[in-house]
Structures are given as C-alpha cells and as structure tokens.
C-alpha cells in the first residue's frame, strides 16, 4: 500500500512512527514493569493487582486513562506509600512518557511531510517498475517505446483546445523545457556573474592603460635626455615653484 500515490505517504508515516515506538518501547516497558510490580507488592489484596501480570496490565491501562481512583484508593485501605507511588506514576508514566511519545510521533510526521513530495515520487517510480516487471516480456516489448521522433519546428495539435491555439505546440513545449523561467535567486546570481565579468574587464583595461602610461613616460624621458634636458633639474625647478 505504501506505493500507492494517495495512501502511500500515510503508510510511510505509520512505519516511521512504529519504528520510533519500537526503539522507545524498551524504556516504556521498564517503567511499566517497575510500577506494575510495585503496585502488586503494595496492594496485592485488590483484584486488578492480585498477580504481577494483571498488575502490569492495569498499569498500562492506567497510562491510557483508566485510573479507577475511587475504586482502588477510596473504597479500600491502602498503605501511605501507595499514595506516593501513585503520584509518581501519574507524573512519570502518564504525563512525561506519554507526552514524550506524542512528541516523537509528531516529529516523525513533520519530517515525513517535509519530504512527502520526493517520497511520493520515489514510491510511484517503484510501483511503476514493479508493475513493469510483473508484465510478460512479450507485452513489454510490444508496448514499450524505444524511440520517439519529435518535430520541434512542426506544429502538432494534441487536444481540441490546442486546435485553435498555437501556444501549446511541441516546439514551444520543448523550448520552455530547454529554457525554464529562472527564479529570483538564479536571476540575482546571473546578475552577479555579469557584474563580476564587467569588473574584470575594467581591471584589464586599467592595467592596459597603466602599461601605456609607463611606456609613454619612458619615451618622454628618452626624448628629454636626447635633447639634453636634465630631468632632475626640471623636477627641482617645479619643486621650487
């Protein structure tokens, strides 16, 4: 049933919760044994706690809400320590353990729901593969399409509505599949890449301008030296000014 599209996700939830309960059942069962034997020792004269087995069963039912407080404690005399044990049982088993079990189940359901789409698709794929394997080989060879011819530039109409509309052509569908609409994050990343390329181009141009400036400076110094102009004197004259 877990491979059916609609019911499968609930079966997955049930299996996850059952696995969690199986792991938690050891601690759960230890508390049941402890309180069940304690109630049997203290109030063994009462019917529900006459034997260890019945006492543990009554303890389990008490965790589910069947306390029978008046029948056990008001209609009969019990030792004072039984009252303290009963309070501990209410706090530990009925409040802490039961709420912990509910919390674990809710956490498992939340985790399954977050991945429900992927799990549903995976189960559908498994179901299709299982059904395909169950079919005879002759039917698989006959109905399985090994190749498909697509005419991207030829308009073909598949429905009555598409007979009047050219927006549903295979070419448009292929184009939309090859060029899907980008999300805002993808657009932002694309703009960042373009800006990064532009910054790199500007850096390369600045480097080229710097090289040309250096070459011009070398040429100017060579010309001034050729005409007998002392560069140091010119610089000192400029500093005096």
Structure write-up:
This protein starts with 7 loop residues before the first helix and ends with a helix. Helix 1 (8-42) crosses helix 2 (52-63). The mean pLDDT is 77. The longest helix has 43 residues, at 184-226. The protein has 241 residues and is mostly helical. It is 75% helix and 0% strand. The chain has two domains: 5-139, Helix Hairpins, CATH 1.10.287; 181-230. It holds the Pfam family Ion_trans. This is Ion transport domain-containing protein. Keywords: ANK repeat, Ion channel, Ion transport, Membrane, Repeat, Transmembrane, Transmembrane helix, Transport. The chain crosses the membrane at residues 21-43, 83-106. It is a multi-pass membrane protein.
Spatial extent as radius of gyration:
41 Å
Largest sheet: none
**Average pLDDT score:** 77
What low-confidence regions span 5 or more consecutive residues with pLDDT below 50? none
Oligomer: single chain
Net shape? elongated
Portion in helices: over 70%
Keywords: ANK repeat, Ion channel, Ion transport, Membrane, Repeat, Transmembrane, Transmembrane helix, Transport
Subcellular location: Membrane
Protein name: Ion transport domain-containing protein
Transmembrane segments: 21-43, 83-106
Helices and strands in order:
Blueprint lengths: L7 H35 L9 H12 L5 H6 L5 H35 L1 H19 L2 H7 L16 H5 L5 H9 L5 H43 L4 H10 L1
Helix pairs in contact: 1-2, 1-4
